[in-house]
Amino acid sequence: MNPVDVSPLTILVAAILTNNILLSHYLGMCSFIALSRRIDTAVGMGLAVTFVSTFTTALNWVIYHRVLAKGALSWLPGGLGAHVHLEVFSLIVFIAVIAAFVQVVEMALERFSPAMHQALGIFLPLITVNCAILGVALFMVIRGYGFLQSLAFGFGSGLGWLLAVLLMAGLRRRLRFSDVPRGLEGVGITLIVTGIMAMAFMAFAGMVRIQ
User: Whose CA is closest to 172, among 160, 162, 187?
Assistant: First the structure.
């Protein structure tokens, strides 16, 4: 199916379930494992990721298609006379936009929710280099999504990450009272459960899926 023909609603649902950015592509695993120990921190981080993913995807789409894809550097110092398309700078620009939004989220949490800001700790500024958010921006370009499609994909991917980390937080809470083999405690059992969750989410593939 041509990406242009896919409705934003289909992309939204698929990004949450069948094409979950974490369970399907395993992006954003670092903060997922570290912050899925408690439900409250999982919800806070998930909402922050959803906010940043949604708005940075929309802004990055505008910047990429209205500025980078249409611009070029026809002159370089030293008289090289090179014609360098600005698209090659997309990765740097995407990261810069993500970093700016993360700063907004961090300042807002520090001002209105100091407890959540302290609970998220070092992982909040690390959203800047969260490969899940950067991956959404890159998938948006690779798949040729339009603006509304990209907005739906960014929002759905954030919700999908939130859903995954929240489910894991609930499961890890139950695992505290389970008889887990000593060698699998901590990260080991978390990765095993993540794989099982990924297989469970594959059951939605017959309902909706995007490429």
Answer: 187
